[in-house]
Write a structure and sequence with these properties.
Blueprint lengths: L4 E2 L9 E3 L23 H4 L5 H8 L4 E3 L2 H7 L7 E3 L1 H7 L3 E7 L10 H14 L3 E6 L3 H13 L2 E7 H6 L1 H9 L3 E5 L5 H9 L7 H12 L5 E3 L6 H7 L1 H12 L6 E5 L4 H15 L5 E7 L4 H4 L2 E5 L8 E5 L22 H8 L4 E5 L1 H15 L5 H20 L3 E7 L7 H8 L10 H8 L9
Parallel strand pairs: 5-15, 6-7, 6-9, 7-8, 10-11, 10-15, 11-14
Antiparallel strand pairs: 1-4, 2-3, 4-5, 12-13
Helix pairs in contact: 2-11, 3-5, 4-16, 5-6, 5-11, 6-8, 9-10, 11-13, 12-13, 16-17
Length: 453
């Protein structure tokens, strides 16, 4: 029988995270203080994050040790299996081997606890008692609620309103773990009240929810803000995915030709990709592909620019691909991919031509996801469907080229809590959506006067 699962023993779990900044051929542009225009320093970030995470955010050290209390929690679900999608390969009838890292094995069902657990830990040892955050589809809010319960912290989550309505079971997961989930925009913050005054029926956005969460956290010495994607330390924590995958592939003597992940803010994609990006930087012939939605095409159609991470302009100016901090995306079901910006690290890699970005329509992604579910069994999250669509496209290319390829991707989470999205697709209620040039131009007007990278 062909091997379908490559499993690591608990003792083989990586004990360090990998920091790509140590190996970048060209250094990244620094984040800027919006008031002075100068690069931010640790003191600028201190009201928002604990200093131990700020140190990781600014570090260029290649390897950073994973604390033992974090490893202890990781072992509840890590190492995760590397699986071969033999049935899907047969369905596609292409000269490809497809391996996927199954991150749906975590208690909340996604990759998000890989950073939620260390963030809760570092805040706990710093003396913080409550974390505020935002969430799109709810995977991050669920993960942070669980992590806060593990370390005895309170947790408040501002959830994008359309996702709050679409995904009631995500907020019930948060409540079960002790998290307080609030639909955003809300009347709990000035940022939320400002949005509601302009648009009482606003579906919300991650940019709005981030503004609310930061406002809620800042000013209370016992509270800090926590982010599930975008920032350097978040991507650092997620590299445990790719590091495990490298060990697992080595066990069977495989090397991927293509490494793929879906990309919204960048954490899931970076988690699988960055260890392999290191290999590519040092000479290996690997294609690295980020898959995003056509309705929120940050990497494929947004310029590389300095922009705020939130709509209220409370964050530092980040160098990233962006659609403008005021952009409110269509209420597609892949809520985790509805962010106006992209992780500076991922943006930098795309700008430098090290990573390729591709965009997919939600009809195309759900079509791929249903094919996957009917061949491999697991129902993917709507976000995961985007990378599955990219895998289908890559397999078609291999067939046309008559070239064998080994594909590796992250299965970022299962879709059992997202069945309402499948109901909409299967009943023909989902529509194709591609953001128009006019909509993008209108959204980008808000960053015209900001500094240029």
């Amino acid at each position: 029988m062909e091997q379908r699962k490559i499993v690591l023993a608990d003792s083989e779990i990586p004990r360090q995270w990998y920091n790509i900044q140590a190996d970048l051929p060209k250094p990244m542009c620094p984040p800027l203080h919006p008031g002075t225009g100068k690069p931010v320093n640790p003191e600028d970030l201190a009201p928002v994050f604990p200093m131990n995470l700020i140190e990781q955010e600014m570090s260029t050290q290649r390897w950073i040790d994973i604390p033992e209390p974090v490893l202890e929690k990781y072992l509840l679900w890590r190492p995760t299996p590397l699986c071969r999608a033999i049935n899907f390969e047969k369905l596609l009838d292409a000269p490809v081997k497809i391996y996927y890292k199954y991150e749906g094995a975590s208690p909340p069902g996604s990759h998000k606890p890989n950073t939620a657990v260390p963030q809760a830990y570092y805040n706990k040892v710093f003396g913080i008692k409550r974390l505020s955050t935002e969430t799109g589809a709810g995977q991050w809010g669920s993960a942070l609620s669980m992590a806060c319960a593990m370390f005895g912290l309170e947790c408040r989550i501002f959830m994008v309103k359309i996702s709050y309505q679409q995904k009631p079971y995500r907020r019930l997961m948060m409540a079960t773990w002790g998290g307080e989930c609030i639909p955003s925009p809300s009347d709990r913050t000035q940022a939320g009240r400002n949005i509601l005054a302009e648009d009482p029926d606003s579906p919300g956005s991650l940019g709005i929810a981030i503004s609310e969460a930061i406002e809620d956290a800042v000013g209370n010495k016992d509270s800090r803000y926590s982010l599930g994607s975008v920032l350097n330390h978040v991507l650092l924590h997620q590299t445990v995915i790719g590091l495990e995958a490298q060990k697992q592939l080595a066990k069977i003597g495989e090397n991927p030709d293509v490494v793929m992940g879906c990309a919204g803010g960048g954490s899931n994609f970076a988690g699988i990709a960055l260890p392999f990006v290191c290999d590519k930087i040092h000479g290996k012939n690997i294609s690295v592909v980020a898959a995003e939605p056509t309705s929120c095409p940050t990497l494929t159609r947004g310029p590389f620019a300095y922009d705020f991470g939130d709509i209220a302009m409370t964050t530092p100016l980040l160098p990233m691909h962006t659609l403008g901090h005021g952009f409110v995306p269509e209420p597609i079901h892949a809520g985790g991919l509805r962010y106006h910006g992209m992780a500076p690290i991922v943006s930098h890699l795309v700008k430098e031509g090290i990573v390729e970005a591709r965009a997919y329509d939600q009809i195309e992604t759900f079509t791929a996801g249903v094919k996957w579910a009917r061949s491999e069994g697991v129902i993917p999250a709507p976000e995961t469907n985007h990378v599955i669509a990219a895998v289908v496209q890559e397999a078609e290319r291999a067939k046309q080229e008559g070239k064998e390829k080994t594909i590796l991707f992250t299965f970022s989470g299962h879709g059992i809590i997202d069945l309402a999205a499948y109901d909409a697709f299967l009943s023909g209620k989902l529509a194709q959506h591609r953001l128009s040039d006019e909509e993008i131009a209108r959204a980008l007007k808000g960053i015209e006067n900001l500094p240029k990278p």
